[in-house]
Amino acid sequence: MTGRWVVALSAGAFAALAPTIASAEEPRARYALEVDAFGGYDLMVQGRSTQAREIWSKNGGGAVAASLSFRTPWVSPFVDVGYYPLYASQSRVDLGPSIGSVRSTGSLAAIGVLGGLGAEWWRLRLRLGIGLYDVDVRATVLGRTIAPRELDGGYLVALRGVVVRSRRVEVGLEARGGFVVEADTSFVSFGVTIAGDAVTF
Amino acid sequence: MNGSRTQPALRGHGRRAGPRSGPRWLCLIAAALSLAGSCGGRRKVIDPVFPDGGLLRDAEPLGQPAIARLAGLYSFPRVAPRLRGPVVAHDAPGTLSLFGAPDSAMAILRAGCLDGGARLVMEGVWRLPREATVGLIRLFVGPEATARALCAGDAASLEGVDLASTTLEFATGEDADVPTDALVATWQRARKDPEGRFLFGAHRGACRTIDDCGVSENSVASIRRAEAFGASFVEIDVRRTLDGVPILYHDDTFTPRLSSGTYCHGPVAEFGFAHVRALCTLKYGEPVPTLDEALAAAIDDTTLRGAWLDVKTVDSIEPAVAASKRFGAAAAAKGRRFVVVVGMGTQELVDAFVALGPPDVPCLVELEPADVRAAGCAWWGPRWTRGPMTADVGALQAEGRGVVYWSLDESEYIDAFLTLGHPNALLSDRPGLVRQRFEVLDVPLPAEVTP
Predict the structure, then answer these.
(1) pLDDT tens digits, residue range B53-71?
(2) How many domains, in total, are found in chain B?
(3) Residues B150, B31 share a domain
(4) Cα–Cα distance between B439 and B346 in angstroms, integer?
(5) Predicted structure pTM score
(6) Which residues in chain A are closer than 8 Å to B23, comparing Cβ atoms?
(7) Whether residues B326 and B405 fall in one domain
(8) Could you say which of B242, B253, B256 has the minimum Cβ distance to residue A184?
(9) Does B255 touch chain A (CB under 8 A)?
(10) How many angstroms away from the CA of A153 is the closest CA of chain B?
(11) Dihedral in degrees, nearest 10, Cα atoms B152, B154, B158, B161
């Protein structure tokens, strides 16, 4: 339900605010080195698989990302670094007759470093990226904690709608989709972005 | 949203069940956004079952000697729709398997007697591994005199069976449809009996996950089914957990291709055994087995002749050698002819093996013939891509050593390596296909290897 509320509120806010500030828009530089920060909430969509009985669980969490792009009137190359908490839970698992049923806690997160191209149209910006995700596990069973991690290939798609735009800064709402190929895991994130022109040309 | 989802049957395929995942609408968004992959990843093929238990529900199970009596080569009067080519009937504990070619078609059947032994029925599942296509199969053994003799089960009755007149009256169907496509196969001849002079190896336990055999590779379940898939020995992959427990898993990293679990990601060597058991299951839901569990199942639950331990890491050599000794002795104590061969595919593994002292366990080296001799091993296991290498094979066999090519899955290559290389064994993801080709081709039998 959290995800649906985030989507609904984001879409509503964008629809309500965008027309009112359109007239205050100032022309932007045609070329700029743009710095972009994203904060929001993400949900793991694919990759949850367990035979255990969950005592509690939390899908997703607060996601943050930062990106650097070279904005042009056509396509804009970018590099994006993001942190996405994917899942956390405590479960009861049966380890067989010799040990019996025990509690297991775990968390899963991904750190993505991706690059790609973006394109803008009106107040919308679409980015397609490819790169690497550092998939981090932290799990405790029988009092012993392990923290394995693996580096997987993946993709990023981000769609942003600008709500407020000045000459050098803009604020928008963004939906992100990530897919971690080897881990067969995907997630979506919804949140706010603030972007500014660090250098203009 | 935690419940498992079962998708409806697809025409021409078995029931496919996807792993647990999130809401479908979110999945669709993610898939569309990411422009890659599919929700749920690779799906699994679940064997169909007869409604209400089929005819076997009320049948008297057929004894193993009677099942074994039916083993042989059968031919079809016309092109069969699903089990093509001369079909090899192969007995395994509790089942009779049928192996066709060239598309690796196979069926695994259980048998029972009806109407006081007047009718002998077999029911099971046929499959085409390459296409992951499955369906139900039912056959009756004829004529009635043969059925009665087999159902009687005593030695005199079995000896009196007129195999030349024996027929297998098939009916096969798509997916879970009750079989209707009828066909009659007739007895052609008895099987060749290699008596240990040629061995059929099952790669990764029985059947790789990519073939969708209904069990996971490197699982206890796959080892228990290996004979039904046509194997006389299994090859299994051994690596160690963080706390030193040898387990069966092929890759060095847990991957959704082979296993599942929300937290089942990362290098195997960084997981304790309790973590493996708590966080990971194999593709078809089985637990990741320990080496001990796998070998105990192979010895106690099958009549397999051995296991090739494909040791993956240097620190797994010592526990593999210890397991070879322990389970070799246990098998001998039970009167089982079962050997545990320690297999090594890299120089580092060979060095670690040699460092343990003079080899006193059966062993196999995949490198060069000189390495096999230096390590004191009885077996050479070259990869098939190197070619038949007939001179090397002949030289090693002259020294009393054995050669097993790995891993051949296509009939044209199996034919070439059987007829050109004259090996002592073949390792395959489809050992039933190797059996079928071995029966059909004129293959000379090498001498038996004493490990």
Answers:
(1) 999 999 999 999 999 999 9
(2) 2
(3) no
(4) 34
(5) 0.86
(6) 45
(7) yes
(8) B256
(9) yes
(10) 12
(11) -40
